[in-house]
Amino acid sequence: MFGLFRRRRIKKYTEGASAYLQKNYEAPAQSTGIKFSLSEPTIQYSDRIQYSDRESSSDDEMQYKLRKKQKEDPYDAAEVTRVLRKSSNANNFSEMLETLERNVNQSFVDRLLYYINKRGVRDSEVYKAAHVDKRLFSKMVSNRDYKPSKDTVIALALALELSLDEANDMLSRAGYTFSHSNKRDIIIEYFFREKVYSLIDANDVLYRLNQKLIGRS
Predict the structure, then answer these.
(1) pTM (predicted TM-score)
(2) pLDDT at residue 14 above 70?
(3) Is residue 93 part of a domain?
(4) Structural domain contains residue 215
(5) CB burial class (10 A; 0-12, 13-18, 19+) of residue 73?
């Protein structure tokens, strides 16, 4: 019975993602429709998806430490706008620079920790749901300037159940974006719009739409 409900759910997601793709894909002139399959995939999952930035066993000595407290990202677009409008003379120039520096100089790791704290979840819940190796996650959060792969960012954003705006925020901090000239990006964007946060469900849909799975090279 469970399998039947899941097949129906995946079928619904696949059809929805296909329609969303048809509507939003900025296709070349020669492009024709989107083909997809509803056949059952033979995908084998493990708790260690091989992300391109996963570290080797040389990191075995690194011990994972659960952070009890992290500062929140003070980013507030409304506050930036308010200060910029207010600081229209030289006397307020230093205040303007201070506000801009405080709000825009946030790295991917800063933002990741902010969302973890905002959601009130443990690190282990996040990296397990994202199928990210524990050693990689530990290395990631211990280096403020760490630059993950795009798939790692997407998997973590799904694990944190972020909105599309929040997912875009996370991606931009790592130097990525969702492109409407990329079919796979549009399908993944659909997941966030429709709150499809299960990595397994998301990969099943990508499989049926003939796209590379999240976390697979």
Answers:
(1) 0.69
(2) yes
(3) no
(4) no
(5) buried
Confidence of residue 46 (pLDDT cuts 50, 70, 90): very low
Sequence-ordered list of residues with C-beta below 8 angstroms from that of 167, at least 6 positions apart, any chain: 154, 157, 192
Domain assignment of residue 176, yes or no:
yes
Q: How many residues does the chain have?
A: 217
Instruction: Kindly tell me the sign of the dihedral angle through the C-alpha atoms of 202, 151, 109, 100.
Output: negative
Q: Which domain holds residue 111?
A: 2-72+107-208
Q: Which long-range contacts (CB under 8 A, 24 or more apart) does 23-26 make?
A: 24/180, 24/186, 24/189, 25/180, 25/181, 25/183, 25/186, 26/180, 26/181
Task: Give every CB contact of residue 81 below 8 A, 6+ residues apart in sequence.
Answer: none
Amino acid in position 114: Y
What is the rounded CA–CA span in Å between residue 7 and residue 37? 12
Q: What pLDDT score does 5 carry?
A: 87
Q: Number of structural domains, the chain?
A: 1
Tokens for 107, please give them.
Answer: 């790295």
pLDDT higher than threshold 50 for residue 204 = yes
Is 178:146 a contact under the CB 8 Å cutoff? no
Cα–Cα distance for residue pair 180/7, rounded to 1 Å = 28
Q: And the tokens for 31? A: 């492009």
- Report if residue 78 sits inside a domain: no
DSSP string, 48-96: ----TT---GGGTTPPP---S--PPP---HHHHHHHHHH--SGGGHHHH
